[in-house]
Amino acid sequence: MAKRQFDDVLLGSIELFCLAAEEGSFTAAALSAGVTPAAVSRSVARLEERLGVRLFVRTTRNIRLTEGGRSYYEQCRQALTQLVEAERGVMGQQLQPTGTLRISLPTTYGHHRILPLLAEFRGRYPKVSVDIHLSNRNIDFVGEGYDAAIRVRAQPDSTLIARLLEDAALVVIATPEYLARVGEPLSLAELERHECIQFELPSSGRRISWLFHEDGEPREILGEGGYVCSDDVLGGVTLAKSGAGLFQTYRFIVERELADGTLVEVLKDFGGRSRPFSLLYPHGRHVPLRLRAFIDFLMEKKGAWESA
Asked: Residue 27: in which H helix or E strand, if any?
C-alpha cells in the first residue's frame, strides 16, 4: 500500500498559508479561518521546513510572498480550488458557480460598461457575490487576491491571459456654448488656439497624447491648456461638459450627450482612432466556475459593443 504524502495537518497548513497570502497578514488569515495567529504562523513554518524554502518575507507591519512562495501559492490555490469543485461535482452542484468574484476595473470602463451589467450577471448567478475595485493603477493578482481585471492597452505578461473586449473609439468633444464662444476647430493645427483639457497618468506624470488620423497617417498631439486631470478620466469629461474646453475621450462615455446635443463631436474628419480594453486573469489550467461564468458573460456582451 502506498504511503500517504498528505495528511490532514498538512492540508490544513496549506489552506492557512493560502489565506495568509491572500489576506497579507497572519492575523487577518487567523480571523478569517477562526484560529489564532500563532496557529497560522506554525502552519507556515511547518510548510517552510518541509519545502526547505522561505515562503514569506516578514516585516513588523506585513508579510510578502517570496518568489518561491508566490509560485507555491499559485499551485496550491489551483489545487484547493480543484478539490472544492470536485466535491461540488460529486454533490451535483458543479453547474452552479458560487463564491466571491473579485475584479479590478478602470474607472471609465467600470462606470460605463461593467457596473451596469452586474445586476444581470448576479441575476443569472445569484450565489456569486462581486467585490469591485475601481482604480486605474496596476494590481498584484496573487498578492491582492484578484480573480480578474480589465485594463486599457494591457502589457504582455506570461502569467496572465488577455481577452480583448473592444477597441473603444475616441472622440473629441465640446459643448455648443464653448464652440459658439471660441469657434470650432476645423484642422489639427487649430487646436493651438483652443483650451485642450489634459489627462495625466498618476504613475508616471506623463500626459496622454490625443490620437488622430491625418492624410491617412496616425498622428499624436499633446495639446495645451489650463486644465490637467489625473487618475480619473471622467474628470476631463466633466470639465468639457461644463464648457471648459475640448477633451478627447471614449465615445461610449458620451454617447447620450452626443445624441441629445449637449455635447458636440469635433474634428470628425481626423477621427477613427481607438484604444483596446482587455479582460485579464491568471494563467492556469483550472479556472474557477465563478470566473468562467464571468468571462463567458463578458464575451457575450462583447458582440453588442462591437456592433454599436
From this structure: helix 26-33
* 259 in the same domain as 117: no
Residue 227 lies in a domain: yes
Pairing, β 217-221 against β 128-134:
unpaired
Q: How many domains does the chain have?
A: 3
Give percent of the chain above pLDDT 90. 56
Beta-bridge mates of residue 264: 174
Whether residues 29 and 176 share a domain: the answer is no
Whole-model pTM? 0.67
Residue 212, amino acid: F
Report d(CA 307, CA 275) in Å as an integer. 16
Q: What is the CATH number of the domain that holds 45?
A: 1.10.10.10
* Helix/strand/coil for 243: coil
User: What pLDDT was estimated at residue 169?
Assistant: 95
> Where would I find the beta strands (DSSP E) of the chain?
56-58, 63-65, 99-105, 128-134, 148-152, 160-174, 198-200, 210-214, 217-221, 228-230, 247-250, 264-266, 274-282
The C-alpha atoms of residue 197 and residue 66 are separated, in whole angstroms, by 43
The amino acid at 58: R
Return the CA Rg of the chain.
Answer: 24
Q: Tell me whether residue 67 is in a domain.
A: yes
